[in-house]
Each structure stands twice: as structure tokens, then as C-alpha cells.
Sequence to fold (650 residues):
Amino acid sequence: MNELKESGFDAAKTVENGNKYLLGNGYLGYRGTLDEFGASECVGLNIAGKYDGVKGKWRETVNAFNPFYMAAYAGGIALDAREKNVAFHEVALDIFSGLFKRKTVFDVNGTSVTLKCERFVNMASKSNLCSRVIITADKDIRLNIKAGVDTDIWELNGPHFKDVKTKISGDTITASGTTQELGYRISVECKYSQRIENFSGGFGYINADIKKGEKFVLDRVAFVLFGEENADGESYDDKLKSHLKEWERLWSISRVYFKDDKRAQFALDYSIYHLLILAPKGEYSIAARGLSGQTYKGAVFWDTEIFMLPFFLNTLPDCAKNLIKYRINTLPEAKKKAQSYGYGGAFYAWESQDGYDACSDFNVTDVFTHRPVRTYFKDKQIHISADVAYAILKYYEHTGDDELMLAGGLETVLECAEFARTYSYYNHVKDRYELLDVIGPDEYHERVNNNAYTNYIFYNITKRGVELYEKFKKAYPESAVKKLKEWVEKLYLPKPDKNGVIEQFDGYFKLEDVEVEEVRSRLKHPNEYWGGSGGVATATRVIKQADVIMLFNLYPGLFSKEVQKANYEFYLPYTEHGSSLSHCAYALTACRIGKTDGAYKAFMDSAEIDLKGGGKQWAGEIYIGGTHPAASGGAWMTAVYGFGCNKEKK
Ligand code: BGC
Fold:
């Protein structure tokens, strides 16, 4: 199966389909919406790594103006999928060629009018996207088209543009504006293949008489430009050619095959599609909701290093290098963050916008009181620094890129270790260092002590960082390395108990022993936040996402299969999977311990998350919907490292 397809129009699916049928080229993302849609239908042309903050609101990536707005009329009647005269409607996404297609047939007072659209975000370019609209009718009919670069755009925390201007020059319409905070001048330029007769209010008007069976074709070749960049004069067909060629190349190096399982094959292909449309075209990184919009502020989380990087390492190593360089380049901000809390080393942003931590101290709004809730993700989720270091080490293991290690890679690893050293507390009674007052991957339990995932990952990255220092003897002061060496030997590592289970954090076993459904039944509002100081899960063993289990995926050789099995069985009933990062973590561990059914189910839950429109849409009153690229990366890892590498030997 090449295409994702859906017939019939359902207004309730507008937001979900915007995500599901998303197009992208690693820099621009265009949501799967219809030509006649506007801001209220969440049309979005999201740009990677271009942030703007409006006073008093959250800083987020900007959505550019929409070059493909079009309101078409045949015989004076609107060709609009929301109207009653729709005889047939279908949208499709060809994931092997990155093409969005739409076909709608209208009954215009007895005349059958067909509107088709094909659209792509050019994979072979950074700034280009194209649309082709074809209209035909079974009787002669008059067409009137209003089209333009729509400046009324969907924004969560905007408006991000000031000095918005539209203009026409020959057959090209341009809208430009300046972002409020950093003053980027962004222009969206769109060249039309049809003559624009009038231009008013920012829109162009095209009129045509089409004969029965004749095709009216409108090609639009658009560019999202910053400052000095220029559009080129290539046609839709030229652009399509280079786009398709690039997609062919990408699939030739990235496809993974399932034997005799069409559903799993499509789910995995779809996951890979989502990773490919996010492959950075420069030294920037990937947002937690990809290019599907401004959710999660367009910020970069540990999702990229731990869940997506493996795919890029194995298929597009240059992209993997870009992802790593993004973290090396933002080391100065991470050092500043550590200093701001009184620590040494590098404390990476929990929600990174070019190194700036966009995570708010009040990241959730209470659904009952509508008041902001103090959350500690930014201050206490220290594992982010270890995740960054882990990714650099993984990159090195794959590539042997000494140069990058000497150009900031090793320094970053050691600065992350140094942060943990200065953050740690020396327990005189037990003669060991402990990491107190942290949040592990499970965000429902804040400010806990000795989270196993956090302690182990810092231990391992420090050990490896120190070893590599011995090899390079460069990139860091020797005295600092000596301190790290002594420290890491005394860093406390929680061990499996008599049942083989590792306690997620000190005191976890003493929490109320109830499972997920019981806790869910205690909710008084469907969007209530489960964690924080007063959440339904806080005083219980119920966790948001894989935590101890995640540790096994990073270091599968560190614990015996028996221990991994004991923890899998213990933690699974307590795991809500309230994060899209969770299913794949269980799937990977399940593969190692031979739980085939559990692995397959969790793999499908991960791979199909955006096909089913799943995942939580709300955290308290905050909208968190969009695509889930970490789940796509996790599905890929499960297929390759899980199903691919754990075949029982006969
Ligand atoms: C999860 C984090 C994740 C973030 C972005 C949160 O809900 O708890 O682990 O990094 O979403 O995907």
C-alpha cells in the first residue's frame, strides 16, 4: 500500500487530518488541510527552528503565511467540501512520493464539477512548496477563483507578524511580515500559472469559462524566504521531478521490510515517512511534534536524541551529525542554565529553542481552577543532559568521528557529567553520591530521589566520557576529569530487589498499590492532569511512561534477561502510556525477553499513533496535539533492534 486514503468529508476530523496528512521536507511542514480552509481549520505552514515570542505568551515556532489558499466558484456556487452539494470527497497521502491529493466532486445545479488538487513540499529544496489544482465539469461552466497568500494564519500564541504586506508583481503574489521578537523578515512568494485579472485585499482573482471535459489547471510554485534568499523560475513539473527523485533516493536507503504483514508494513512505512519529512537540512534539530504545528512550542526534547537519532544514524548519518551539532552548538546556553541554578557543567534545556529553555515554570493549567500549576520539568528533569551525552556517545560509536569528538563532542559529554557531579549530594552515612530532587522520564512523580534511570545513565556517560578522555587527552581540563573519575565510582546505583525489580526511585514501592484503570476512574475531568502536587497518580504507583524500562533499552547488556522480565511484568500494569514515548519502550524490552505478543501490540500502538489520531490531546488546559515523531522513531527501533535482532536461535 502506497497511500493513506479517506473518503467522505467529516468536519470533526479537520484537526486530526491536518496531522495525519502532513507534508514536510525537514524544514517546512504543511498540514493536510483543504484549499478552501483558513486559520480556523488549523491550516499551518510550520517552519523548523524559527521562533518568536509575543509578550506575555509562550514562545513558539512561527507558521508562515499560507500560499495555497483558494476559494473556487463554479456557476456562482462555492466549491467547498463543507457544503451540501458534495457528491464525492477523498483525500490521500502518497507516503512514497510525499504527495497530498484531494478530489471532490460537486453537484452544481445539475452540472458535475470535479476539483482535484496535488500538493508537495519539495524534498529536494529547503524553501519550496507547490500545488496543482485541476477543475473539470461535465457541462460548460464559468469559474471564478479567489486565491492568494493568506495572512490570516493559525497561531497558538501569536500574532507573530507585524508590518504584514501583500503585493502582486506580474503573476506572483507575495505576503511578507516581520516577526515580533527577533525581527525576521519572512516572505511567502507564490507564482501562478494563470493570469491574475484583479488583485485586491491581498487576493488575486482569476476567471475562466471551461468547456465540457476541458481541464482548468492552476499551478502554484511557492517559496518561504528569509531576507536575502530568492525564488527561482522553475515550473511545477520541474519541481515535481526533483522532489520525486529525492523521495526515491530516501526510500532506497531507509525502507525496512516485514514479511507477510501488510498492516505492520504500512504502519512502519508511515512512521519512516514521518521521520524522513523531519530530516533536518542544516544544524538544527527536530521538535517534539515535528512540523505539524506550534504545539509544545516547537521545542526540542530528549525525544530526538533517544527516540529518533537511531533512525538517522543508520540511514542519514549527515542528518544525525546535524542533530548532534545542534546540541554541541547550544552548549554555552546549557552551561548558563546550570549556572543559573547554582551548578557547574551543562544543564540542557528541557524544551530547547536553540538552547533557550522554553519550558515554563507553570507548564500545566488546572482544569478546575484554571490557574497555572507549578511544574518542575525545567528545573528537575536533569536526565536531559545525560540523554544528550548518551546521543553523542552513540553517534561516536556508530561513526568513529574523532573530529566531532574533538570539536566539542567530548567536551559536551564531560560538561554533562560535570553538571551531575555538582548536582549530586554526598551521603556521609552511606559514603556515596546521590541524585536527589529530580524527575525521571515518568513526569507524574516530581522531585523524587535517586531515580534509577537518571543515576544509571549519568553513571554510564561519565564512565565512557572519562575513558574517551584517556584516548584523546584533549578537550577538557585533566583536573576536572580526575574529579569525575572519583565521583562516578561512588555514584549510587539502585540494584534489583529480591524479586529482580529495580525501584523507580526511593520510596516508590511504598506508594499506593493501584493500577491504571483504578486511577483513571478517580478522574473528575477527562483532561485533568495526573501528576504534579495533587494529581490522581501522584501518590500511587501509576506512572506516565516507561521509566526503568527505558534504561534497559539504552543499556540492554547491563541487566540479565530475568531482571528485564521481572521489571517489565512489574511496571506494565502501572504504566498509563500517557506519553507517546512509552509503548515503543515496552515493545523493545518485550522483544528482548521473548514477549512476542506484547511486543507486537506495543509496536503497533507506537507505529499507528498518528494513523489512528491517538495520543493525548490535552495536558490540563494546554493543547498538546500534533504528530508524534518519537513514537515513529520508537517504532523503527522496535522493528530493527527489536524484531530484527532478537530472533530466537534454533
Ligand atoms: C513526555 C516527555 C516528552 C514530551 C515531548 C511529555 O508528555 O512526558 O517525556 O519528552 O512529552 O514529547
